[in-house]
Give the backbone structure.
Amino acid sequence: MPTELHLALQQHYAGPDGEIEVRLDGFKADVIVDGVIYEIQTASFSSIRRKLEKLVDKYEVVLVHPIAAQKVIAHVDPQSGAEIRSRRSPRRGGPADVYKELPYLAGLLGRPGLSLELVMTVQREVRCDDGKGSWRAGGVSVVARELIEVLGVRRFAAPADYLGLLPSGLGGPFTVSELAQAAGTGRFLAGKAAYALRHIGALEQVGKRGNAYLYSPVAGPG
C-alpha cells in the first residue's frame, strides 16, 4: 500500500497535467507527465529492478527517491493516536544515503532512458510505542512518513553524472576507506557505492595501494 510520503510525491510530480497510477505494459506507472514515467521509490531499490528493466526499453523513466535532509519525529499514543511529543532529528540526510541501494540497480543505472532523481525533503516520521516494532527499536513502530517540504532535487542520467554522488574534495585515485572517510559513512556502505559506480560506468579500478583497490573517474572520450 502506498505510504503518505509516496502519495504526496506522486501529487508533487504529477502537478496539474500529469496522470497517476497508469496501467502500462502489465505494470502500474506511478506518474506520467509529457510521456515521461516517474517511479516513486521510497523503499529499497531491490523490489523495482524488474519493473524498470521492462519499462526502460520502451519509455523514458525517472526513478525518484526521497532523502530526508531534515526530519521531524513525532510520537503518538498507541490507544488514541494523539500526538504526545515531537522533536527535530539532529541527523541531516544527503546523497550518501542512497549508497546502500545503488548495487540493486548496478548495470541498469546509467543506461539511456533511465535517470535517478534524489529529492531532498523535510519529512515527518510518526512513531508509536505499540510493541510491534523491531527489537532494535525497542518495539517502537514507524507508522507513517509524511512529506513536509521539497527542498530540491538532484538528477543523475549519464554515467559521468553519478560522480556527483561522491563527496567533494575526494582527490586522486582513492580507496574505499578514503571514500568512507570523506563521505562520513561506514566502509561497508562506501564499498557498495564503489561497486555500483564501477558497474554504472562512472568509476574504474586503476590499481592497488597495498591490499586496497584504487578507484578513479572513468576518463571521457578524447
Notes: The chain has a mean pLDDT of 92.
